[in-house]
Amino acid sequence: MATHARRPLLGYAMVWAAATLFAVNGTVSKIVLTSGVSSLRLAQIRSTGALVGLALVAVLLTRARLRLTRRELPSLVLFGIAGLAFVQLFYFVAIRRLPVGIALLIQYLAPLLVALWARYGMREPVGRRIWLALSLALVGLALVVQVWNGLELDALGIAASLGAAVTLALYILLAERAVGRRDPITLSLYGFLFASLFWLVVQPPWSFPAGSFGEDVSLLGNLATTELPVWALTGWLVVLGTIAPFGLVAGALRHIPATRVAIVAMLEPVLATLVAYLWLAESLEPLELAGGAVVLAGILVAQTAR
Asked: What is the pTM of this model?
């Protein structure tokens, strides 16, 4: 088993960076979905594109660590299909049918699931500060999305968000277990390999709607007068919306525990709201700002917990 020095500050910085990229990715994904690309197809493109990019990086930098053992295979298959393919699918279905903030609020029940598994599944001690941090973060997220406003929520959207919460928790837990034996690049590579193979069976390549990716689409909101081809936006989604943030999360798990990674990742909905304000010209009210501050307080409590 590989050993490495833990550097908590680096781990926290990696999760913050990943949350920022994921937040921008939410708006980019929503724009791509408005072009007519289906949630299933976008999840397939994201996985396959990430696989190609990571394979190039791995061949150049980590070729010696590409060897796969039979013992690893079952967990990597589960990691790729349940932890990567399904979390992306559920996320895209959720943001298509729900406001991004509501979808992310439900998805970020994942840190609570991680903490509950650590405490009752693995019998690991979870300190009071971690529970306090979780409570603050969830209350803050509720303020950010203002859940009391009487939204008529789509049942399939809620189910997809709950599915995203479960699979996100599974992704974090499986990645934490795997990074003790494998570096983040090859871990992500094999994860996206099995995710891509899954999508290849579900959606064969001959059914790929290649023509729609050459069309231009408006960037909406404050950038409504600007248009980009769908292929350019999906390229951003693959590189900076998938390879980079998933790799950062996997790398962070080498330095800080899964429970803390999950809590700090709850910064994503707050940042997604800020991105929507700056990009899509959505309103940003005092309660949303207060909710963001509460989430940040929860994250700081988690970072100071023993």
From this structure: 0.80
